[in-house]
Amino acid sequence: MKPLQPNCTYHIYTHANGYDNLFSEDRDYHFFLDEYKKHIYPIVKTLAYCLMPNHLHLLVTIREEQDLNALINEKMASGHEAPKTITGETMEQYLSKQFANLFSSYTQAYNKTYHRKGSLFIKNFKRKKVTNEHYFLR
C-alpha cells in the first residue's frame, strides 16, 4: 500500500472487525468526530466524510509539506516530542501515525464504554489516491 503524501487527495476507508459495529449510539459518532478533530483535522483538509454503523469513508487532501512542518514545530514548542522537520519516509510515517492514533484512541474509549476487548477496526485502513475527476465525483 502506497504511503500518504502531502498535497494529495485520498479516499480513506475502513470497517469494523468481523460483525462488530464502530458506532452503536449517536454519541459514538460525535465522539469519533471529536477525536478526528484532534488527530486528523490538523493534517488534512476534509472534503467529505460518511460514518456508518460498521464502516466509514473519508475524502481528504493532505496539507502541504510546509504546513505539516509548521505543525510539527508548533507541537515541539508546546513540549511534544517530534522531529524539527519531517520529510520523505518520516513524513509518510507521521501521517499514517495520526490515523493510527485516531483509530486507537477511539477503540480504547469504545471498548471501555461497551465493556469489550480487542481491536475494533480491521488491521490497516485502506486508502486510494484520487487521481481523476471521475473518481473524485463518484
Structure characteristics:
about 140 residues, alpha+beta, 4 helices
In short:
With 138 residues, the chain is of the alpha+beta class.
Average pLDDT taken over every residue: 90
Number of helices: 4
The succession of helices and strands, N to C, reads EHEEHHEH
End-to-end separation: 22 Å
How would you describe this protein?
It is a single chain. Helix 1 (26-39) runs antiparallel to helix 3. The chain is an alpha+beta fold. The mean pLDDT is 90. Strands 2-3-1-4 form a four-stranded antiparallel beta sheet, with no helix packed on it. It is globular and about 40 Å long. Helix content is 42%, strand content 20%. The longest helix is centred in the C-terminal third of the chain and has 26 residues, at 88-113. The protein has four helices and four strands, in the order E-H-E-E-H-H-E-H.
Helices and strands in order, then pairings?
Layout lengths: L8 E7 L10 H14 L4 E9 L2 E8 L2 H13 L10 H26 L12 E4 L3 H5 L1
Antiparallel strand pairs: 1-3, 1-4, 2-3
Helix pairs in contact: 1-3
